[in-house]
Amino acid sequence: MLSSFVRGFALIVLLSSVSVSQAEIINWDVAAGKCTDDDLKLIDVWFNDANSLLTAALQAVGELDTGNEDILTFFSSYFGIQWDYSTPGAFKGRTSSLIFDQVRSTLNAMSTFMNSGKLSVGAAGSFAATERAPYGYCGVDNYQQWNWNNEAWFVHDFPVTNPVTGNPYSVQDVYGKAYSPNVFTPYWAETESAYLFGTTANPLCSIEKDEEQNEVVTMAFVARPNNAALIPLKGIADTTIFGPSINICNAMFDAEGLDYVESLADLSYPTADAPTMLDAKLPKGATIFHELTHLVTDYVGDQWYPLDLCIEFAVNQPTLDTISAQNNANSYMFFALAVWYYYNPPGDYVATFYRGTSNDQVHMVNS
């Protein structure tokens, strides 16, 4: 929906579910786009819920060798992993094994970040060595929309200058080959002193349309700004990719009329007599979980959003392509939410969202 540097919505050993405070792993103390104290209280709730979803997902990974067919079916439904049911936890083919490895790796990276604040080298970008905490913003005040013919800056009010003419390069001179001016819009990221490139069709924190032409409100996004590290030669800049930031859109704080609830505690657990769809109501922590898959990796993107497409592509097209379920943020989000329901029934009835509905039966996939 946005450039590769702007992604948004909008284990063999089970790690501890206790995470450090989000205030310790994300730097919210910024000048532009600063969150209020009330904002941060809500963000704490959402991060705690995201960690609960992660705990459920990791528990499912830890049950692989038990041969629990319920759990295996969740992996089949949301990631297309096929199983050899004659041997507990055995994969049906190398492709399924490799897909599972990537899913586990992603969840492990999320757990590492939530427990220590550390990002992988690929996810941290050029700031891997500094171990700087990702920035966190509320709204889009950190980003100023620019024109392509504006002079390009190294830092605030300090232009990138042509060493021959002494004149400033334009943003298009520096970045126009990497980002087509016909497709992208440049934004100046004030805190990072860098540029963000979002698609012109979808401004930051905008209302978009998904693959089924449904309107989708962007609730949050992850950004990785660029900056020209050296004076460009022949119009091509040597750029630095900044570490990621997480951006909470205003819609996240005021989701009235949308299919969201404030927390996992606000969800109504389905009953046998009243089945529901997994996406009927989403906790806002699920959006944070979605964004964390972007934050901690450099490969999880937004291939498709709707629940039915996540399941359809996983079940019918389980591949190792970059456009596949194990590289799709919503596939992780729906998987985690489905297994969270499975592990947290309030009574005897257990919801089984194998194909998106709470009363789906085991072995509907890859039986």
Summary of the model, kept short:
The chain is α+β, with helices and mostly antiparallel strands and 367 residues long. Helix content is 31%, strand content 15%. Helix 2 (37-62) packs across helix 8 and helix 8 (284-295) crosses helix 10 (329-343).
Question: How would you describe this protein?
Answer:
The protein has 367 residues and is an alpha+beta fold. It folds into 2 domains: 11-28 and 36-131 and 254-343, Collagenase (Catalytic Domain), CATH 3.40.390; 135-250, no CATH class. It has 10 helices and 17 strands. It has helices at 22-25, 37-62, 69-79, 94-116, 121-124, 171-175, 250-253, 284-295, 307-316, 329-343, and strands spanning 6-8, 83-84, 90-91, 135-138, 143-145, 153-155, 158-159, 184-189, 194-199, 207-209, 215-217, 220-223, 226-228, 239-241, 245-248, 260-261, 282-283. Strands 1-12-15-4 form a 4-stranded mixed β-sheet. The protein has a 3-stranded antiparallel β-sheet with strand order 5-8-9, with no helix packed on it. A hairpin with a 5-residue loop joins strand 2 and strand 3 (90-91). The two termini are 35 Å apart. Mean pLDDT is 86; it is low at 1-19.
CATH architecture of the largest domain: 3-Layer(aba) Sandwich
Number of strands: 17
Strand order of the largest sheet: 1-12-15-4
- Tell me the series of helices and strands, N- to C-terminal: EHHHEEHHEEEEHEEEEEEEEHEEHHH
Number of domains: 2
Strand content: 5-15%
How is the biggest beta sheet arranged?
4 strands, mixed
Low-pLDDT windows of residues: 1-19
What would you report as the Rg, rounded to the nearest angstrom?
Answer: 21 Å
The DSSP helix count reads 10
What is the highest CATH level, the class of the largest domain?
Answer: Alpha Beta
What's the overall average pLDDT, rounded?
Answer: 86
Give the terminus-to-terminus CA distance.
Answer: 35 Å
CATH topology of the largest domain: Collagenase (Catalytic Domain)
Q: Determine the fraction of residues in helical runs and give it as a percent range.
A: 25-40%
Q: What structural category arises from helix and sheet content?
A: alpha+beta
